[in-house]
Amino acid sequence: MAQADIGLIGLAVMGENIALNMESKGFTVAVYNRTVEKVDAFIAGRGAGKKFIGCHSIRELAAGLQRPRKVMLLVKAGQPVDDLIEQLIPALEPGDIIIDGGNSHFPDTIRRAKRAESKGLLYIGTGVSGGEEGALTGPSLMPGGSPAAWPHVRDIFQKICAKTPEGEPCCDWVGENGAGHFVKMVHNGIEYGDMQMICETYLMMKDGLGMSNEEMHEAFKAWNEAELKSYLIEITRDILAYKNEEGQSVVDLILDTAGQKGTGKWTVLAALDEGQPLTLIGEAVFARCLSAIKEERVAASKALKGKMKKIRGDRQKFVGDLRQALYASKIVSYAQGFQLMRSAAKTYGWSLNYGGIALMWRGGCIIRSAFLDKIKEAYVNNPRLTNLLLDPFFAGAVTAAEKPWRNVIMKAVQARIPVPAIGSALEFYDGYRARRLPANLLQAQRDYFGAHTYERVDKPRGEFFHTNWTGKGGTTSATAYTV
């Protein structure tokens, strides 16, 4: 029996396309699916005449692989991954590699890596971004897990992944255990933010300025040729121009309720665990939740008076303001995302290469954009950069956009048009550069009702004080004080 370079389990859309991608780069791929009829259908269909080995059991798959065996799972995240790992363990030998290419939650990847390594196996949890097309033609790959596994899969991964215009692979080793899936999770959270900000801009154009789909198409087309050039701006341009056979704009026929698979929520929960202000992505997640209560919103629109108003003035100038507001808000979103990754790296002991992560997102993935080149440059210039807003290029860009950014939010408030993500970006920017915030009063409140103590401006950090505010509270204070 011929020996395959890699095995792949799961022949749904992503699995099929990645298998075809691998084969097109010269690799022989053994494929298996729990429903074995899918294996036969694939071998007789899209895989006909190609270097695939169809397998009807996990043991048959394992027997057909070169050592160390490499088995990639592309199945639904959650229990199916755990079930497959338990089935694979008896069929594999020490040094063999299990690769989870699904959208797994990073704590699960940490746990699974530990489980596989306890059996002498190596484990990789890799983020895969780019959707169906990316899987086939070149996704962005974000692998993490057992470091010893990387040399064995590097050639395959870097041949099948997307490439930058300069030919650099959009794939490199991210870090230990769950680092790869954590970075993919943050990628998805940033994707939530980017999409929401574009949608808010669209709403301002459509309902605020009364622009037609054709006019908006032209605006996004122009934006995609400048600093906002990106996959999401590009597809928004195309969506706004798309008409069905009856000549209707399809975007106008779509119900305004958004779905989500949970990765945005995971990003926000991770930020809460890390104590990081991921405000923009949080608003993007909640905006989807708000969209989902459609019937309640319709009822509220009748009960709570006050419709959206038109934005008056120079339309062309305001469209320019929208462009700058979107750009500045995008900078804030990425600054928050990278800030979260820095915090998590300390918590979990990961050595993340932030410039390398920006490079991995440069091609193949949903948030790919020219903008990421500047992020890579920022971290190459200063690997210890604490926040993107402190990089000279991004600081200058946000400063230049501040006036039109504020104008957009002011006009949105006056016109009753909700812009939660763009608005929260400005609020974060103002808060982040505020030398003094009102948390002194907040700490006084906490100390008043719970004796939680506080630090003082005239004393060294780390000394804690309690005031008997009422004269009845005594001198006993709480011991928990977490910043």
Characterize the structure shown.
Helix content is 54%, strand content 7%. The model has no long low-confidence stretch (mean pLDDT 94). The protein is built from 20 helices and 8 strands. It is an alpha/beta fold and 483 residues long.
Descriptive terms for the model:
alpha/beta; eight-stranded mixed β-sheet; 20 helices
Q: How many E strands?
A: 8
Rg from C-alpha positions? 25 Å
Name the shape in a single word: globular
User: Structural class, from helix and strand content?
Assistant: alpha/beta
Strand content is: 5-15%
- Residue stretches low in confidence (pLDDT < 50, at least 5 long) are none
What is the average of the pLDDT values?
Answer: 94
Q: Taking strands numbered 1, 2, ... along the chain, how are they ordered across the largest sheet? A: 3-2-1-4-5-6-7-8
Largest sheet: 8 strands, mixed
Helix content: 40-55%
Order of helices and strands: EHEHEHEHEHEHEHEHHHHHHHHHHHHH
Termini, distance in Å? 61 Å
Please work out how many helical segments DSSP would assign: 20
